[in-house]
Amino acid sequence: MSERAGVLIVGGGIIGTALAWALAERGLRDVLVVDLDLAGVYASSELNAGGARATWWQPVNVEACRLTLDFFRRHAGEFGFRERGYLWLYEEAALFATAREKRALQNAANLGVELLTPAEVRARFPLLDRGLEALVGATFSPRDGLVNPNAVRAWFRREARERGVVFRDRDYVMGVKTERVAGRGGSLRRVAAVDVVRVKRDGAGDPSGVLREILTTHRVPTSAIAGEERIECDVVVNCLGAWSALLLAKLGVPDLTEPVRRQISLVDVHREDLAPGVSLDALGMIVLASGLYFHPEGPHVLAGYSTPGEAPGYDFDYDGSDFFESEIWPRLAARASSFERCGHVRGWAGLYDVTPDRSGIAGAVGGFANLFEAHSFTGRGVMQSYGIARAMAALVATGRFEEVDLAPLSRERFTDPARWVEEDLHI
Ligand SMILES: Cc1cc2nc3c(=O)[nH]c(=O)nc-3n(C[C@H](O)[C@H](O)[C@H](O)COP(=O)(O)OP(=O)(O)OC[C@H]3O[C@@H](n4cnc5c(N)ncnc54)[C@H](O)[C@@H]3O)c2cc1C
Questions:
Q1: How crowded is residue 29: how many other Cβ atoms within 10 Å of its Cβ?
Q2: Is the pLDDT of residue 94 over 90?
Q3: What is the Å distance from ligand 1's center to 194 Cα?
Q4: pLDDT above 60 for 1
Q5: What's the pLDDT band for 188 if we cut at 50, 70, 90?
Q6: From ligand 1's centre to the CA of 353, what distance in Å?
Q7: Nearest CA to 60 among 371, 365, 358, 393?
Q8: Spatial contact of 44 and 28, defined as CB atoms under 8 Å apart
Q9: Per-residue pLDDT for 427 more than 80?
Q10: Per-residue pLDDT averaged across 413-420, rounded?
């Protein structure tokens, strides 16, 4: 059996879903999204920290995030967007010097980023009553904040469906069929069809571990196969996040990205332990430039730490209380006496798809007549979702970027280190 799609989006995480919406919003009526698991049990879009900031070091990242944050602001109630700011604490003079220099770019985009001395940090953030002598300075970006990423994705999906987009769940893309066509500069390849395996349902979540097995081994167990199908298409967009390189490999496109595990702990803070005058309620994201970040999350605190040298791989194992006790608690307690007795609630692990310069990849794939891509947004996919989707929809529909020029994010940049889009404020 075979099906047809005008635009086939492979991967229904926040990026693929936002793109489907943006295409439908432009009037495209034949958009199909396929995903192994639309609930996204292992998708980064469901496992992230909900931070949203436009304060980056590269204009294209600032712009894509700025547009996205404006969009979040317009739907603040629905998306749980809280404009509470990002506070960055620096211990390294060289890094802080660059942060100061990048303020010009950020403030040209009206982000209002302030420089704070350690004494000002202490006065404005009474929670942070320890380790201030180690700081060389801080920045505070008041227009950044926190968002509920699941609500954002649900909105994109609902609005896309209302505009006619079809989402197919339990479709695992296994193969790609290409053909040669004449292009302007000579012969090009064209993706004619994508082959999917229909995977059986075993209830909500992943009770038998089949989804996890498929997403970590990239094979579908025979017992889980419900059928196979070929989907013919005019255009394909690779929105597979940390799995994007697997599709590219099937197409013979060399790729430099790596899936890397990132862990998050939920932390229990006893309200009676809060130092006098300290409240967690109004806080946004607090980041130690050395790798720890945290923010209030319902009754708890959500804290993540990017372990340096984490080996690449499709690893979803959360290291549990060991991770909390060795990486999270000491760093929190070193900054705030209120965290001295905090406890571990639970946590999880998800994947960053990391590029050599830590910026995402978006655009048309060279050598192909109809293949596009938008993936590998490391720790930035939610906060760029709207900007990337709008720009990519314009590219797919008209051949040109509009609103934000994503040309710097083309994969061609990796052929020349001078064109890399380096981001160092990356956690
Ligand atoms: C711990 C952590 C914290 C983060 N914190 C933040 C943050 O604070 N702010 C922020 O903006 N970003 C953050 N991120 C990054 C953000 O979550 C990602 O950049 C974003 O979710 C990527 O979305 P995506 O749609 O590209 O990929 P995903 O959401 O991973 O979607 C990819 C989809 O592809 C599907 N799939 C895979 N292979 C196949 C196949 N062969 N066939 C069919 N379907 C397939 C999967 O089921 C999945 O649904 C964080 C990420 C992690 C892991």
A1: 11
A2: yes
A3: 21
A4: no
A5: very high
A6: 8
A7: 358
A8: no
A9: no
A10: 96
Ligand 1 pocket member 245 (CB < 6 A)? no
> Cα separation of 47 and 293, whole Å?
15
> DSSP 3-state assignment of 322?
helix
C-alpha span between 54 and 398 (Å, rounded) = 27
The predicted-structure confidence for 107-152, as pLDDT tens digits, reads as follows 999 999 999 999 999 999 999 999 999 999 999 999 999 999 999 9
SS3 354: strand
Cβ-contact 189, 180 below 8 angstroms: yes
Cβ neighbours, 10 Å, residue 225: 13
Three-class HEC string of 107-118 = HHCCCCCEEECH
Supply 164's token pair: 């006619």
Write the DSSP symbol of residue 370.
S
High-pLDDT (> 90) share of the chain, %: 92
Res. 185 pLDDT band, cuts 50 70 90 = confident
Q: State how far the Cα of 101 lies from the Cα of 86, in Å rounded to an integer.
A: 17
Q: For the residues of 84-146, what is the DSSP string, one character each?
A: --EEEEE--HHHHHHHHHHHHHHHHTT---EEE-HHHHHHH-TT--SSGGG-SEEEEETT-EE
44 Cβ closer than 6 Å to some ligand 1 atom: yes
User: Which atom in ligand 1 lies closest to the alpha carbon of residue 264?
Assistant: 1
* pTM of the predicted protein model: 0.97
Report whether residue 243 contacts ligand 1, using a CB cutoff of 6 Å: yes
Hey, what long-range contacts does 323-331 have (CB within 8 A, 24 or more apart)?
Answer: 323/263, 323/265, 323/347, 324/265, 324/267, 327/263, 327/292, 328/265, 328/267, 328/292, 328/303, 329/267, 331/288, 331/292, 331/305
- Range of lowest pLDDT (19-33, 116-130, 235-249, 274-288): 274-288
